[in-house]
Amino acid sequence: MNPPGPADAARPWTPHDLRLLAVAVLGALVLFTYGLGEGALWDQDEPRYFQIAREVRFDDPWTLRLDGAPWFVHPPLFFWLQALTARLIGFTEVAARLWSALSGVALVAATFLLARFLYYGRGSSIALLAAAVAATSLQVLGQARLGVFDPTLVAFMMLSLYMALEADRTGSRRAYLWAWGWAGLATATKGPIGLALPAMLIVGLWLLRRDGQAWRRVPWAGLAIYAAVGLSWYVVGMVRYGLPFLRTAVGYYLFNRFFGVVENQPGPWWYYAPVLVLGAMPWTAFVPLVIVGLLRRRHEMASQVILLWCGLVVAFYSAAGTKLPNYILPVYPVLAIGIARLLQDLLDDPAVALRSPGRWAAALLPLPSILFALAVVSYGRIKYPDQASALAGPVALVAGVLAGGPLVAWGFLLYRRLRAMVAALILTPVLALPILVHHTLPAMDAFRPTRRIGLALAAHARPDDLVAVVRLPLAASLRFYSDHAVRWVEGRDDLIEALCAAPRAFVVTPDSERAWVRPLLPGGAVELVADAGVRVYRADRPASCARAPTLPR
User: Fold this and answer.
1) Does pTM surpass 0.85?
2) How far apart are CA 530 and CA 345, in angstroms?
3) Residues above pLDDT 70, as percent of the chain
């Protein structure tokens, strides 16, 4: 990558480029929004985040709240967007997930822009392929259809990265300022990582080309834009709440998230290897070939960007003490560009399919399908052990399409039908989506009673009633769907204290805990709901609460 110069500053957009970008955007919009409201919110993040959005006060938007108490975990931008949408269309599953879907579309558009930038001169075909690969990668598709803020973070981050690379190429002050601004929006979504990762990539490129003067071309006044957009929440929180805010938002959820383990989410150093194998489906088989090809062309700027970015993201989050699958979402858009380059090489010269890349792809394509099928079976037995047999059919149907698509593509590759191979891989998640929406999710919801129980509680519970949840990891969903604060109950003493804490209590318990819960309820307790192994009892405050009770052993 050379220092900027006027010779290659102009890269005009043609009508063909714009049409292909429109195709990518419209395709992603349909893919990410089709049946978006189907299925109840998934514990714990979706209902918790949407509850925070419900409690956003527009007379004081800077303080996020959960059950009325200040919540200092993440910056507010995503919750503001959810709150605005919900106030227009209602607090529905669509409103919870809409901004993730739209952010997924923006992420796909940014992938197109970045691919066109990196491989300018080969038309926009690689850019369109990259957008298709990114949109149909399993982890991108899944997270763009959940009410979580990672797609929004990554969309802003990719736009910042694109503008920073464009600015580094041309020396454009305006492009640099846009890069600062997009990084600010990423930071306002999930913290300073929105600036840190793009900045590390740019510095890495400077070091590779030994450009000691590159930093002088950066308009550091853009820091003011970044601070105004991205750091305002931190400043307001420190001014209002002082040390408690600093300890929580900065000390615990920022530094301790990296150097320690937050919310019991540890993982080994290789944690993200299986995540990438499954998350890149149905394109996983091409990833080793992409890495080898990029290393061979490591003197090209495009190869340096893709290798540096993917390596930085995986290394950064692997070094962190706290690990979650969604953290490495930024890998997929840039990795998709490398996959698109490999696919385009195969399409341009079908004879390549008989040489090393094609032979290795033919050997590797079936393996991710086998691993995916094993992962689905294992997850089902762990997550729904009692319902595994009943859900086997609906889950196997959608999993069969997702695992079978690469096998069909494998057949096309063996016969050198390369365009059919690419089409089969793109269509794999497209064909699986209607099955998931109309068949698999309804079957799973039959065993997920939280929405139905929450709505029943909303219809019966008064504001001064207490909702007690006994050893059931559904508190976030029940809190949202009932629009009523819930209290976690761990044992006998907790339950007796809860029954005495309000004039009337609603006790939510799984059948597995019913043997010890039911005898502790007062004689007039009424079973209100029994649904999918969960029961709700309505009980008035026991008369024994008027005196100090002897707690049963």
Assistant:
1) yes
2) 59
3) 92
